[in-house]
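question for whoever is on the cluster today: can someone run the full assembly for these? six chains, 1488 residues total. i dont have access anymore since they changed the login thing
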Amino acid sequence: MRLQLASWPEVQEYLTDSTGIMMPIGSTEQHGPTGLIGTDAITAEEISWRAGELVNALVGPTISVGMAHHHLEFPGTMTLRPTTLVALIRDYIESLASHGFRRFLFVNGHGGNLATVGAAFYEIYQEFRQAHGADAPALRCRVLNWWDGSKVRALSDDLFGSRLGNHATPSEVSVAAFAYPGYVKHAELDPPVAPTGRFYDARDYRRRFPDGRIGSDPSMATPAHGERLLVAAAADLAEAYRQFMNED
Amino acid sequence: MRLQLASWPEVQEYLTDSTGIMMPIGSTEQHGPTGLIGTDAITAEEISWRAGELVNALVGPTISVGMAHHHLEFPGTMTLRPTTLVALIRDYIESLASHGFRRFLFVNGHGGNLATVGAAFYEIYQEFRQAHGADAPALRCRVLNWWDGSKVRALSDDLFGSRLGNHATPSEVSVAAFAYPGYVKHAELDPPVAPTGRFYDARDYRRRFPDGRIGSDPSMATPAHGERLLVAAAADLAEAYRQFMNED
Amino acid sequence: MRLQLASWPEVQEYLTDSTGIMMPIGSTEQHGPTGLIGTDAITAEEISWRAGELVNALVGPTISVGMAHHHLEFPGTMTLRPTTLVALIRDYIESLASHGFRRFLFVNGHGGNLATVGAAFYEIYQEFRQAHGADAPALRCRVLNWWDGSKVRALSDDLFGSRLGNHATPSEVSVAAFAYPGYVKHAELDPPVAPTGRFYDARDYRRRFPDGRIGSDPSMATPAHGERLLVAAAADLAEAYRQFMNED
Amino acid sequence: MRLQLASWPEVQEYLTDSTGIMMPIGSTEQHGPTGLIGTDAITAEEISWRAGELVNALVGPTISVGMAHHHLEFPGTMTLRPTTLVALIRDYIESLASHGFRRFLFVNGHGGNLATVGAAFYEIYQEFRQAHGADAPALRCRVLNWWDGSKVRALSDDLFGSRLGNHATPSEVSVAAFAYPGYVKHAELDPPVAPTGRFYDARDYRRRFPDGRIGSDPSMATPAHGERLLVAAAADLAEAYRQFMNED
Amino acid sequence: MRLQLASWPEVQEYLTDSTGIMMPIGSTEQHGPTGLIGTDAITAEEISWRAGELVNALVGPTISVGMAHHHLEFPGTMTLRPTTLVALIRDYIESLASHGFRRFLFVNGHGGNLATVGAAFYEIYQEFRQAHGADAPALRCRVLNWWDGSKVRALSDDLFGSRLGNHATPSEVSVAAFAYPGYVKHAELDPPVAPTGRFYDARDYRRRFPDGRIGSDPSMATPAHGERLLVAAAADLAEAYRQFMNED
Amino acid sequence: MRLQLASWPEVQEYLTDSTGIMMPIGSTEQHGPTGLIGTDAITAEEISWRAGELVNALVGPTISVGMAHHHLEFPGTMTLRPTTLVALIRDYIESLASHGFRRFLFVNGHGGNLATVGAAFYEIYQEFRQAHGADAPALRCRVLNWWDGSKVRALSDDLFGSRLGNHATPSEVSVAAFAYPGYVKHAELDPPVAPTGRFYDARDYRRRFPDGRIGSDPSMATPAHGERLLVAAAADLAEAYRQFMNED
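^ ran it for u. tokens below:
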């Protein structure tokens, strides 16, 4: 169930059974000539919603804008500063913890978010410890990339092999295409498989990856692949959530 | 066009014609026994998307969590601290201004956001002035409540009269019901029209408004009303956007 | 009684009877060719002091610098950033709440402050809730513009009609002139009634309102008018304070 | 001239001659059984206003609330957090520097402010350097305690000798009494001369100095002494300001 | 050369040849019954100093306290909040960049630092971009764990095999023992190899890992092993630094 | 005992006897043509370590980078912003206080740190008071300059007389030379004794003191003097620590 589509009595009822919640987090950033700017938010939330149904988990509102500084040389990219995202995640968890939520599984659609989300968890633990000492609630926060589960990884390797790449991948573009089939874009990709490598700031990124892709060939993306990937990723996530909730 | 559903070359193209963008901002908070927790975000984004099509305006990602401290005694409510929302809006505008966007129309779904959004605009103007002096880009930021347009206000008065109220109104509940007809909830409302009055912090709010509503009778809400309200509000918003873009 | 003119045993005594306090907040900003830069602080504090005597309320130290970014193109204007004002108000209330004060009526002399003061109240409620949970003191914070009371509004309409305007009004200039009769300035006002309209940042403001006034004719201001307005506003404020203290 | 009592064209005119300004900073804190809570703000502003006239210097709005955490066990005391005061002073100087002010002489009424004011100057220099590099304006900020000038120190020694003490001194109480003769308080002081010594936090302070005084006998204070002290301190300050403005 | 042991003319000379610098970052946290609390800072700095000599690189001052919230249930552990560490790293780089340094290789002694250091780099890139736009210097920041190089990893596997573990490892304990042979501690370790597993906040950590170790057997540590590990890690680091400096 | 060289059981044992700790704080800043950039950190830590042995006090990790904005025109200087140092000191004390430490003696190697360290203490007291009210632990924080003790001051006067000066003094250069005899530098100093005077920002500092020294003749520095000064300063500090721990 999506939190946004519940009423408060329904949430009250849910909390009598479970203190867990999934929190999708994406990004609003360029995804190459054909990928949607919202790809990372769309994939994270679609997979979370599907997995949420499999395990009867509540799914919180999607964090749509994440850490995308390095894409800012491409129009449409938006980013938070890390300190803003830390504050936002702290506020989200503070709110939900006040109702009794205790286990927070962040479902991540953008690798660039990982560092800052991890920093946010430290900030939260420390704030609760300082504010409440021995009485602080025992919060548990984790973050998972949706593409890291075993099922979706196997399928993605199978479908795209070495043309998967690292950014604007046919995998994520497929999932977004399945979610929004009316918005599939076409463009000639030159070279067909984008270059790879390390990068630093936004100008450095654009210099190295002129059309925005890293190592990928998103021309392989299709809505049909997207559906299969979504199903696989949701199954992986459902399993991870169950383990997370059952952990000692 | 939704920014999330565009590619970066499409945004680049858009910017050759316009520097304007609509930014939906809502809240994640209780809306009485039957209203969706995401009502304010859903209404703001649905109306913005519709209006965006009427005037060919880009619509940014929805800010789903706003200023809802006073609803925190009801499970499921989430809030940012004002300083977090100020930072978030600053980061959003900073990102978009770096691409050339100059006119930002925030479409608001929650009255409680107004003060902090207004404060954020001041913070942004001052930061740009301090950082860039005479070279600062001439940003223009405005915020509008979607229910304040003349067409939607007339319709709302006509449909609900004095049973509209101030929170969990049949108007907003109708728009959300139209958007998500599968999630319409039913509950006995007692009293049928909720009490009204001023309130202070979250405990004070719950004491005065035990089921969360203020002055409203959301049992009057229907998806059909919602569609009409959505059309009216989008027309109002489209007109306001045109004026905003044409202002000297 | 002004807090600044009390001793600590007097405050201790006061707290045995009342937990209320008035907090004047103004601004330090241009007020047209003839208005004092301190007009908004002076009016807020003079009216608070007078009203404080009528209802035996303590009056805190005036916040002299507020939200005046949009006036910065005029020499002498000072502004806080919104986040600074939020922190300042939080610190003021935190200090006073530690002594037992619970009801804070901010008496505002500058419309531009309203948004940020409102944001500050949210921040405070949330900080106290997070720090103290169910044990948080039940704070009540309100803000009133001194010119919004019924008596002073009627008098102002009567004296100035449509030439009152929105900034550097003959009403506020009169009150300041009554308070500081030795500092009344004279200048030719061209046009006699200033233009009106919406504005955005500081440069936009100066472009639209070249001498700083909005819609007003402050040549109508006199110390005698100021005294009558001060008396009316103080009576309105005294009544509002009584209601605030008696609220359930 | 007090900035608050000037119009913007007057400030514009002033800036053609001078880039200097005096900034009074005080505190709102207990001053023993008889001293005014606003003593430090009152003394700083009265002396600044007098000195301002001697040297034709503009005097900014008084910072009334400073660093008074250690007095918080006494009702009526208010304090900012150091980080708030740093932000406030940064905003003040940022505003004034944008008009062309360059030399800022803070006139201090409370020893406890010195550390944080000094920290604020560092923050400002660093922010301007980071924002503007080689183009940063050459700001000069200093802070002086009004009781440290040679004339006022000699007079104070002469009048009060070893009964001057460190807090709630007859010197500062006299200056405030001269400024507000209607608010002179009387109370038996026991012991007549308060104890002295180091202290740490607020509870420690109250334990060591039960009536709030440190080392002082404020029963020696009179308005007449206050006038002489005010004149002496203003002369010292005028001389310091001249030197500050003439420094290479 | 250590920056701390250079004079400013020596740094000026260095900058004519290179814009690179190594920055050791560690932690101050429990390392089991026998490990030094400063292990992570000591290892990072000793390896950096050695590597700095191999490649004539300047080595900045060690960041001794890092992200160690999860160890706070063990006496002596210290931690920064993530937002503090982000600010600290920003200030360090801001300072050094003002002199002309451009490539910053952080040599990390504590895995828990990685997320926050990564977040800090994003914050820095974004701040420079916002402050300086197209004129921002092209900064490059990387972070490496000293134990991740191929030579040191091979040696560590060879020496300790599966008893290496994750915290209070015989590898890090050996390096610290080589650096401070007078401070080698002895204690019975029970069980000899500590348990492993995931953890959340500080209380959860102590519950799972009662003596502080994770998966390790530090009884295998010796100063002699430490010397070999130090030499290997420094060689790895020297190579990584050379590549970093030669990157396009 | 240095905290960094202790194990957590050793700290646990220490806390059964004492709640005191010494905290060295220095700076990373130019010290004239011959002084080490790390002089202030080196002197503070060497003296603290020696004194710690005299009184069996634990010595925390050195804060190596302090408030050195005014030296930034000299290559190699690093500085924190005051707000960063306040946060860092708060985090240090928060961590240590959670283990039971109560008395914190900061041993300072750089006069420029004093203001901000003092501000930090206020921030800490206020945060603990706000978070914990009457249950806040009774923290005591003090800061001492190592050169202010009577023994070291007498010796320094005796050795260097009026050529001691204020920055890059032969006293601090001697102590650092004793600690790191392999890094003694030589350069012609012109003039032999540097000029003195007040300064404002970094550019102003460099203009007035072109080689970085203020009023000093560091050519008088020797390692042998350094040893004597170190011994004297450590004896002074040991005595100050004893008094601090025995204070009522």
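summary bc i know u wont read the tokens: The helical segments of chain A are 8-15, 39-55, 82-99, 114-132, 150-160, 170-179, 202-208, 223-246. Chain A is about 45% helix and 10% strand.
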